[in-house]
From TrEMBL:
Protein name: Maltase
CDD domains with a match to the protein in the record: GH31_MGAM_SI_GAA (cd06602), GH31_N (cd14752)
Glycoside hydrolase family 31 TIM barrel domain ranges (all copies): 380-725
Family as reported in the entry's similarity comment: Belongs to the glycosyl hydrolase 31 family.
GO terms for MF: carbohydrate binding; hydrolase activity, hydrolyzing O-glycosyl compounds
Length: 947
């Protein structure tokens, strides 16, 4: 069918080409704004119905009416109702047409109606007669009376500004009763961070306790602030600006309510620049840079295999905006369900409870912004070193007995593949009951001991649903401590997960932590695990209980209230300890479980770092736990999405994150698994996992995948000291381990939208193949010199795109000029690698210089003694400075590579601290100088010189 003209530019182009057809023959009909009149409609339970008057035309034509759902956020094609009728005569008379149809299930907040005329197979689309209608969340609601609040009293004390607000007029009760009086406090937290909190003056509302979600601590004395906060009095709006006057957040948005503050509905918006560069808001599976025009991010944790545009397992109400090379961020510290919409020029929050508690941080560098955000929610936990190795997991398949798992491990090792950690999914349990071993795992713990002897580790899964089985200790103990979740009338709440009918712990109960710790400690006696994997903690429930649904329907699972809040989770009616309602804390279930699990592991191994892999998360979860992106699928799109997901989690303060390699759900292919092995080798958390019901997808099953995995993981294990150093830095500063390319130069607008490549730290650029059948890949190189990992030759010397060969077993990796990567000769486990000699890769910048650092400790202790070294190459000298040497570094530095070495001939002699090193050998090829045969003690400062 030919579309003559529509609203898009493409259509306009087509219109020009077909102009004679569209314009001449049907022009008189297609530009008539009065063609549709008097539309009435109702929208209820997913059905839009109503009537309208449509002008008729003389010719015997078919006509259609399309209802396109559109609210500036959504533009879902395929959600149209078609009304089709045979034309009747009488030109310019109006016929009354009724319509009714399911508009399912996406984002109806406006629909669009226009005419399409069809004659002799040619379609004339005319939207000049089209009109938008608002049907947000059921019957349309007028915001005419939502006139906001007036400032009635102001006071300033200790630098904190307090405002009393009173509702202007009678309010609008859009979705629930208006709160009459509000209190605003504006608290400077640091030179770069300010908190603006709006609470109910008279009545208690749900507010996040600081022991569950940290609220940061204001500095005592703040000298110069990099922001100013101002407000308007009537109606009250507030604005945060940079000293330059640049406005970062401004709730005075023309045409929108200034502030709606109701019992179960809060709405506030801020101005954004057109085409704003917004990152963050999650969990989600979407591009890293969020569409500034059509993003709707719903936050309501759900066990939903990650699909594009849905809410997912975790909630992170924080965004970062990159504007003119500077980054700032906004965090809404609120755990309630919400929709956050980005539409052209604005961001709107629609929240169904709690308080408005904003933190605005001013960056301006990306690293500073992350440091500021993690100063509120907590710095990322420092992971044990072994967790940086390769992890093997499998659900079902042959992994239903000790022998089945052992066979896989043996095959991996025989293939020469890298392996650090052996996981166990729910199959190891007896009847899927937590903390038990099934009969085919009777010899499991002996096997775990064997793994430990080989310097391998083990992590089993634990689910929060506790089966109601008489005599089952976790259940009995929980009953005696009275820690399970209940209905308001005191009856236990039952749901259903893997083991059958279950109850769930109330993590707010003061005894729940002890109960959980006790179960974990007992379990450790029969399964000497090294970390725990907490799944199903959204919380997932196989049945949907009845429970309260507020009037404003958030877009849970992309379905605007059709999928209500109770869908496949705990009832919103449940009450936690001291009356806290599940309605308010749903999004905290996994986060709080992670806190308790971290505490339990700390109690089990005092003084040691913990490893907790959680599926669900909230702001701050990264300070106690790590994360994977849940149940992805074996598709090329999921391969790509893993990159924006991992980059977004860096912004959420969860640097240790990964996606299931080769895809969890569905059958993978050799080629997909091959490309995934290559990319996954550079995930901070690097785990292969696959769902039951699908054929095995272990690397060793295919020759090509084995080769790719060997090649890519050899890089990973080689740069282990570098990766570990990045993790250590992240735990101090919050800085991203996986960095988008604009991290290197926030003014480089070319990089703003790139999410098919990333760097590890600032030194290692990864350009994976994400397309089926490709044997090359086009990647962007930020400015500076980038050296090919494999040859040490300069690949790119100025910013721009390059197409690179990428045969099936090759992943492109480049090293940034100016960076020194600390490396070790790789063995097949991280532990064994840490015992090997060190070497350095010094990739020189345009000035012939490079620098780097090395952090070494025992790899497991919370407050380990550590050593910290810095390296600098300048001219023909490598300087090794030791700023701390508490931890004895046994392996020696055995070689140094200098990339971008421009002298024609190699040096004749190598000197260490002025003394000639006799055993040293030197080769020079293609500007790669390789100095070997060194034996440098890294516990002391030294100077290596070549001439
Ligand atoms: C909506 O989709 C149509 C058809 O794909 C496109 O022409 C139009 O530009 C889209 N509108 C927005 C706001 O994205
Ligand atoms: C639509 O409603 C208006 C106001 O009631 C009326 O004047 C007009 O005639 C109606 N249009 C049609 C086509 O019936
Ligand atoms: C606005 O408030 C006035 C006075 O209370 C009331 O009569 C009117 O119906 C309200 N309008 C809407 C759209 O709610
Ligand atoms: C308590 O409330 C729940 C949910 O409404 C209900 O199923 C249960 O029967 C009630 N228990 C008692 C003892 O009334
Ligand atoms: C949940 O709470 C609402 C409102 O408080 C109540 O109307 C409803 O009956 C409750 N449902 C259950 C199952 O208890």
């Amino acid at each position: 069918m030919t579309i003559c003209c529509g609203r898009s530019k493409t259509c306009l182009l087509i219109f020009l080409v077909l102009g004679y057809l569209c314009g001449q023959s049907r022009g008189q009909y297609v530009d008539d704004p009065s063609a549709i009149q008097n539309v009435t409609y109702t929208y209820d339970n997913n059905v839009l119905s109503g009537s309208m008057m449509i002008k008729s035309y003389p010719n015997n034509m078919n006509a259609y009416i399309y209802y396109e759902t559109y609210d500036g956020v959504w533009n879902m094609t395929g959600t149209t109702i078609t009304v089709h009728w045979q034309w009747e005569n009488s030109e310019n008379t109006y016929g009354n047409w009724s319509f009714s149809g399911a508009i399912s299930p996406y984002g109806i907040s406006k629909f669009y109606v226009y005419l399409v005329l069809v004659e002799s197979g040619v379609t004339y689309t005319d939207d000049n007669n089209g009109q938008y209608y608002v049907v947000a969340n059921g019957a349309p609601r007028s915001t005419a009376n939502c006139t906001g609040y007036d400032v009635v009293r102001t006071s300033v004390s200790n630098g904190i500004t307090s405002l009393d607000l009173a509702l202007n007029g009678n309010g609008c009760a859009l979705y629930s009763p208006d709160v009459k009086y509000l209190t605003v406090s504006i608290t400077p937290y640091s030179a770069d961070l300010v908190r603006i909190k709006i609470t109910d003056t008279a009545n208690k509302r749900w507010q996040l306790p600081a022991n569950v979600v940290s609220e940061g601590t204001p500095s005592k004395s703040i000298k110069t602030k990099s922001y100013s906060v101002s407000y308007t009095n009537s109606p009250f709006t507030f604005k945060v600006s940079r000293p330059s006057g640049e406005v970062l957040f401004d709730t005075n948005v023309s045409g929108l309510p200034s502030l709606i503050y109701e019992d179960e509905y809060l709405e506030i918006s801020s101005i954004l620049p057109e085409n704003a560069n917004i990152y963050g808001l999650g969990d989600m599976a979407d591009s890293f840079r969020r569409s500034p025009d059509t993003t709707l991010q719903t936050l309501w944790n759900i066990d939903q295999a990650t699909t594009r545009k849905n809410n997912a397992y975790g909630s992170h109400p924080v965004y970062y905006e990159l504007r003119d090379g500077m980054v700032h961020g906004v965090f809404l510290r609120n755990s309630n369900g919400m929709d956050i919409a980005l539409v052209p020029g604005q961001i709107t929050y629609r929240v169904i409870g709690g308080v408005l508690d904003f933190y605005v941080f001013t960056g301006p560098t990306p690293a500073a912004a992350l440091d500021q955000y993690t100063s509120i929610i907590g710095k990322p936990a420092f992971v044990p070193l072994w967790t940086l190795g390769f992890h093997q997991c499998r659900y079902g398949g042959t992994w239903v007995s000790t022998q089945g798992i052992k066979d896989t491990v043996d095959s991996l090792q025989q293939a020469g593949l890298y392996l650090d950690t052996v996981w166990a999914d729910i199959n190891y349990m007896n009847a899927y009951d937590d903390f038990t071993l099934g009969s085919s795992f009777w010899d499991w713990n002996a096997y775990v001991s064997t793994l430990h002897k080989e310097n391998l580790h083990h992590v089993p899964i634990v689910d929060p649903g506790i089966p109601i089985v008489n005599g089952y200790r976790p259940y009995q103990d929980g009953l005696s401590s009275d820690i399970f979740l209940k209905w308001p009338n005191g009856t236990l709440f039952f749901g259903q997960v893997w083991p059958g009918i279950t109850v769930w712990a109330d993590w707010f109960h003061p005894q729940s932590g002890n109960w959980w710790t006790k179960q974990i400690m007992k379990f450790h006696q029969i399964d000497s695990f090294d970390g725990l994997w907490i799944d199903m903690n959204e919380a997932s429930n196989f049945v949907t209980p009845t429970g309260y649904e507020p009037a404003y329907k958030i877009n849970n699972n992309g379905a605007w209230g059709i999928t209500g809040l109770n869908t496949r989770t705990l009832s919103t009616n449940l009450t936690h300890y001291s009356g806290v309602t599940e309605y308010n804390v749903h999004n905290l279930f996994g986060h709080y479980e992670a806190i308790h699990t971290h505490n339990a592991l700390s109690a089990l191994n005092p003084g040691k770092r913990t490893f907790v892999l959680s599926r669900s998360s909230f702001a701050g979860t990264g300070s106690v736990s790590q994360k994977w992106n849940g149940d992805n699928s074996a598709t090329w799109d999921d391969l790509y999405l893993s990159i924006p997901q991992i980059m977004s989690n860096q912004l959420f303060g969860i640097p240790m994150v990964g996606s299931d390699i080769c895809g969890f759900n569905g059958e993978t292919t050799e080629e997909l698994c091959n490309r995934w092995a290559q990319l996954g080798a550079f995930y901070p958390f690097s785990r292969h996992h696959h769902a039951t019901g699908n054929a095995d997808s272990f690397f060793f099953l295919w020759e090509s995948v084995t080769q790719s995995a060997l090649k890519a993981y050899t890089i990973r294990y080689t740069v282990l000291p570098y990766l570990y150093g990045l993790m250590q830095q992240a735990s101090q500063t919050g800085n991203a381990v996986v960095q988008p390319l604009w991290w290197h130069n926030p003014s480089d607008t070319n990089a703003y939208g790139i999410d098919t490549q990333f760097t590890l730290g600032n030194g290692l650029l990864v350009t994976p193949v994400l397309t089926e059948g490709a044997t090359s890949v086009t990647g962007y190189f930020p400015d500076g010199i980038w050296y090919d990992w494999y040859t040490g030759s300069a690949e790119s010397t100025s910013a721009g795109y390059k197409t690179l060969d990428a045969n099936l077993t090759h992943i492109n990796v480049h090293v940034k000029g100016g960076v020194i990567l600390p490396a070790q000769y790789p063995s097949k486990t991280t532990y064994n690698t840490t015992q090997n000699p060190y070497f350095l890769i010094a990739a020189l910048d345009n000035n012939g210089k490079s620098s780097g650092s090395l952090y070494v400790d025992d790899g497991v202790s919370v407050n380990s003694n550590y050593s910290q070294l810095s390296f600098e190459v300048s001219g023909s000298t490598l300087t090794i400075a030791v700023s701390r040497n508490e931890f004895h570094i046994a392996p020696k530095l055995s070689s140094v590579q200098v990339w971008g070495y421009t002298s024609i001939s190699p040096p004749n002699a190598i000197y260490l601290n002025g003394r000639r090193v006799n055993g040293a050998q030197v080769t020079l090829s293609q500007q790669v100088l390789n100095i070997t045969g060194l034996n440098v003690d890294l516990n002391n400062k030294s100077v290596l010189h070549w001439k």
